[in-house]
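call fold(seq) -> tokens
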Amino acid sequence: FFLLTGMTLSSGFWGILADKFGRKPILIWASSFLCYFGILTAFAPSFHWVLFLRFIVGFFIGSVPQVSFLKY
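ret:
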């Protein structure tokens, strides 16, 4: 639930950033933070931290479909 909520809330945000700064830099930054917060989730001290960090991971996962489409 928290992962999908983060994805839903961030999709428009990533589209705007990609238009302003370009797709490649945004994808690199979002993927880096996605990896970082995914690793932090594995070491979360309590269930509430897991929920919060999964929301943040979902926020950064929301960038992938918005930014990584192919142009022909």
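The radius of gyration is 13 Å.
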